[in-house]
Amino acid sequence: MKNQPVSLFLILLVLLPTGIFYSCDSDRSGLKPSTGKTNEIVAVTNSETLWKGRVGSEISGFFGNYQEGLPQPEKIFDLAHVPESGFSQMFKTHHNIFILDINPKFLSPVIETREDFWAKPQRVIKMTVADEKTFFTEFELRKEAFMDLFNSNERRRAALAFGTIRDVNIQNQLKSTFDIDLMIPKSFMVAAIDDDFVWLRREAQNFSQGLLVYCYPYTDTLAFEPDQIINLRNHYTKAKVLGPLDGSFMKVSMVEPPIARRINFNDNFAVEMRGLWELEGDFMGGPFINYTLVDQRKNRVVTIDGYVYHPNKEKKDLLRQLEALIFTLSFPEDRLEGSASVR
């Protein structure tokens, strides 16, 4: 199991009196909607030469790495490079911006991050370092936190879009049955529901998306073990998520075993699992993403899972949409506060 807890405290928040961050009006009101493609980062460097060398390869290689848990290669982010001299207002409204300024006048590295600086929703990250050697050292220390910030912004963008088409009836049903708050768009329907499990589906012309939520009493930290997460998922899907053929049902594919990691889920400890699902007794399959956490105020494990079926097509963006919905999960505030954190 990969143990890569995300810590945003790696990021030093400072203000510079000059530079790119102060090249526009500092008034944050009336921001324009951010622009650009889904899952894209605009990378700004001092020069084209810098981007074409080892520095550019490091940046594009990390943010443009292939997403784990997909059946075919798809990059986490697409990178579009803009030299600092060409970083015009047109690019400043992009959803995600990464700025690297190599400046020998700075004896110590300066890391800045801004939310909704030139547009909304937006994430801007700027690194100012003295030389390339310092860049590689600092980037290695902070790149996972940078990735988390850009991923969080993509989820926020999708959630804002879905927020305009909420299915209030389904949301109220989830709240009354499971005591959870979860944003659900009107395109979804309830496929199955009982006291501890719900299956929500979206059936489009050429793809399907699904959300699974299931709960059970918390007893110990074995709930976070990958084998336990897989076994519980298979337990529920075998009984509840049936395929079109008699005897067919969803299960976790072990051809490529799922990858699990510990994460910060809305300020809660959670395990994220990415992998592939398949139908026992049929030929359907695709990727899934799964989050397991503890609702401490009710002493129960809550697992929320999203899966995609989109044969012979890219699936990353559809899975990203489900991830955005999953991260809207919260527990109503009218319960007792003050439980100890799970570690």
Description:
- The chain has 343 residues and is an alpha/beta fold.
- The chain has two domains: 155 residues, no CATH class; 161 residues, Protein Transport Mog1p, Chain A.
- Helices cover 25% and strands 30% of the residues.
- It is built from seven helices and 15 strands.
- The strands form three sheets. Strands 8, 9, 10, 11, 12, 13, 14 and 15 form an eight-stranded antiparallel beta sheet that branches.
- Helix 2 runs parallel beside helix 4 and helix 4 packs across helix 7.
- The relative contact order is 0.13.
Task: Summarize the model shown.
The protein has helices at 48-52, 54-63, 89-92, 132-162, 168-178, 226-240, 316-326; strands spanning 32-33, 40-45, 78-83, 96-102, 110-115, 119-120, 123-129, 189-193, 197-203, 208-217, 249-252, 259-265, 268-280, 285-295, 300-309. By secondary structure, the protein is α/β, with parallel strands linked by helices. It has two domains: 8-162, no CATH class; 166-326, Mog1/PsbP, alpha/beta/alpha sandwich (Protein Transport Mog1p, Chain A).
